[in-house]
Design a protein that fits this description.
Blueprint: H1 4-21, E1 24-27, E2 34-37, H2 50-55, E3 69-73, E4 80-84, H3 85-89, H4 98-108, H5 124-129, H6 132-144, E5 159-163, E6 180-184, H7 185-192, H8 196-209
Antiparallel strand pairs: 1-2, 3-4, 5-6
Length: 214
């Protein structure tokens, strides 16, 4: 009696031989290369390989192809760049980078163009306190005093560069390094604020002992 294994092996070889002989020729729709397929795939087999199948569905051959990228000029820096047509359709694709986009938005929202514009009512003193020279003066005072409050001697934390002679009353001394002293928030608002004249002599003495004030 023949073994079951040998019988199955013969059937397998016969089946493979029969299928191999039954293959028919087809032409790849992508590369025009000739390839063989079994008869049951004669209507469905279109490509000779997975690579050709994938390539035929990308780019211009893709189902959702919308024309690809187009050349545009950045509205901020004037640099040429490429973007998709769909971006232009929804209002995007105006700038070559996020940086140019942010700079443009910043410029458009400045001054009268800003939705919070109220006719330029910001007080002059506030504008002066926000100036670049005052920021540099403040940093210089902090550095000179080693970021230490000159009353409680606490280093670091929330610090204020206080004007010894009032900012509003002495505009000519606003950026004078000898008219500034470092104070912590607690000492500034709890002790010195609204009592500047009483502390003036102490601050001047403090600076003079360190060779600061003249």
């Amino acid at each position: 009696m023949k073994s079951t294994y040998s019988t199955l092996e013969k059937k397998r070889k016969w089946y493979l031989k029969t299928r191999k002989c039954a293959k028919i020729k087809k032409i790849c729709l992508h590369c025009d290369k000739e390839f063989l397929v079994y008869p049951y795939r004669k209507d469905t087999a279109k490509y000779c390989s997975i690579s050709c199948s994938s390539s035929s569905k990308t780019g211009k051959n893709a189902k959702n192809w919308r024309g690809g990228k187009v050349l545009k000029t950045c509205e901020w820096c004037g640099k040429e760049f490429t973007t998709h047509k769909c971006n232009i359709k929804i209002g995007w694709g105006k700038y070559c980078s996020k940086k140019c986009d942010n700079l443009s938005r910043s410029e458009k929202n400045r001054g009268k163009s800003n939705f919070n514009w109220r006719g330029g009512t910001t007080p002059m003193l506030k504008l002066a306190r926000m100036s670049k020279r005052i920021k540099e003066w403040r940093n210089f005072v902090f550095k000179r005093d080693d970021y230490t409050c000159q009353i409680c001697e606490k280093r670091g934390g929330i610090l204020n560069a206080n004007h010894i002679k009032k900012f509003a009353d002495y505009p000519e001394l606003r950026t004078n390094i000898n008219n500034g002293i470092t104070l912590c928030k607690k000492c500034h608002f709890g002790m010195v604020n609204k009592h500047e004249e009483e502390w003036e002599s102490y601050f001047n003495f403090n600076l003079s002992t360190r060779g600061g004030a003249k």
